[in-house]
């Protein structure tokens, strides 16, 4: 396929400019964000979609950051990631975290409500950090009139309803802690108009606006909500990525996981309600803090 054809199908809009907001971008972790063992000391965290992919790596890197309590939520078995967390702590010579594995369907009100009750009981009634990582990608190859309606809506059920339900049931626990951070995984795809990608890209756009509303609704209670593009990582979910865009899947899961650790290692109010690109060099991003706040960057608005 010719480069011009790929550009026309992908319609990246200004995604390249967004990615290049800072001079340096990364595809793997780097020293400034690499956990040293203390970043999340005494913190508790819940990660959805934790059995594999980005969720699994986030749990392991949070362990390396010294996280005290880790709740793992997924529909599939969590035995493997539990073992890896224990092995990671042992190899790093640190106290293993309290691990709470939970079989959760994020699209189910009853399931998420039960998970919140289990976390409340196990973690002393509060939670420091919520990472809404569970996601679903519909194959990018059909326009609206051809796609299976059930598949199209499943993207919204997982990506939007799932994120909403977790925020709905876990925010009360966050408000009982000091840290009060929500990380909602989205995608740079929220900024694109790729042929046949209406389910995924529109639902990821909705994630961004939901994060803005959460930041707005709880601004008086000092809750921080950040939307994160984790990079383009070749996870199982990426199998539905179109073949002509597979060359973009060059980022490592540790980049996203360590970025989550960095974002949660302290309260960064200047990023509240904003869209963060995981490929950015975070040290350089810190240098643009004043510009970001003054121009109110990385929120979705209509240009007039």
From TrEMBL:
InterPro entries, alphabetized: KR_dom (IPR057326), NAD(P)-bd_dom_sf (IPR036291), SDR_fam (IPR002347)
Alphabetical UniProt keywords: NADP, Oxidoreductase
Keyword Signal: no
A Pfam family of this chain: adh_short
Domain of life the protein comes from: Eukaryota
Domain (Ketoreductase) ranges: 43-240
KW NADP (keyword) present: yes
GO terms, molecular function: oxidoreductase activity, acting on the CH-OH group of donors, NAD or NADP as acceptor
Family indicated by similarity: Belongs to the short-chain dehydrogenases/reductases (SDR) family.
Protein name: Ketoreductase domain-containing protein
Organism for this UniProt entry: Penicillium cataractarum
Biological classification of the source: Eukaryota, Fungi, Dikarya, Ascomycota, Pezizomycotina
